[in-house]
Amino acid sequence: MSITVRVPAKVNVQLGVGGLRADGFHDLANVFFAVALGDEVTAAAGEPGTGITLTCSGPDAAAVPLDGTNLAARAAGLLAAHHGLAAPDVRLHIAKAIPVAGGMAGGSADGAAALVACDALWGLRTPAEVLLELAAELGSDVPFALFGGVALGRGRGELLEALPVGGTFHWVFAVADGGLSTPAVFRECDRLREEAGTGSSDTDVRTPDADPGLLAALAGGDAVALAGALANDLQPAALSLRPALADTLRAGTEAGAIGALVSGSGPTCAFLAKDADSAAAVAEALRRSGTCRTAHATHGPVPGAEVLGG
Rounded to an integer, what is the distance from CA 289 to the centroid of its chain? Predict the structure, then answer.
């Protein structure tokens, strides 16, 4: 028996970053948006005594760790420990489509998918609120991968509130060569704030909140208004660490995208298009531009982690 779970990537249509807290984190106003580009994680019973084993396929498979640091493996162990199960023998296979270290929460998505897959495989029927608590233990972006749709994340991003959306939005994601370390981007954000003289601590930088105009654009299904409200406080830091991303953002905009921003901590760049045909044209232009490794047209919002079959 095996269980396969599909889980979406995310784009942050708004990422407001507060100052550095004493615990090393930042308060966020993080408007997550789940898109149809996603990974699939399959869980199956392993041979006795083999423990948790991982395999991976897909364009970025070589960059995916296959040891206990992988969030999918950690999720399986955490779920088993929560239920008092003996060390599980489970095989996890990740079919990778979300860029690795690309600012689209691919590792977090795999952790969420592994929670759902192992829960189904082992017949645990863990309540949704408990799965969300376990997801938050794994990382700030993992709960949203379970949640899906569009949501406002507060705290470190793990405190989620569903947001209304009035329709389908069309996106293009330009995948860069190599990744960016999320902690490094946050450190650069703090450094740039210090350099600008504004200070970087939570006593210097106000706690961010969601932009009412952006929320209204989502609720009304207004792509043009959403394009004008897109915002990412980490974008200057990502551009500082990877200046070539400015060329990617320019190429997508010149190809007809109505909105553009770095996705999360980068280096993937996200482009909002007015419709599906425009998204396909922007993706093709980006692939020809030489400013990115590849580009994918997709849409959203879509549900969070869901079982495909077993």
Answer: 25
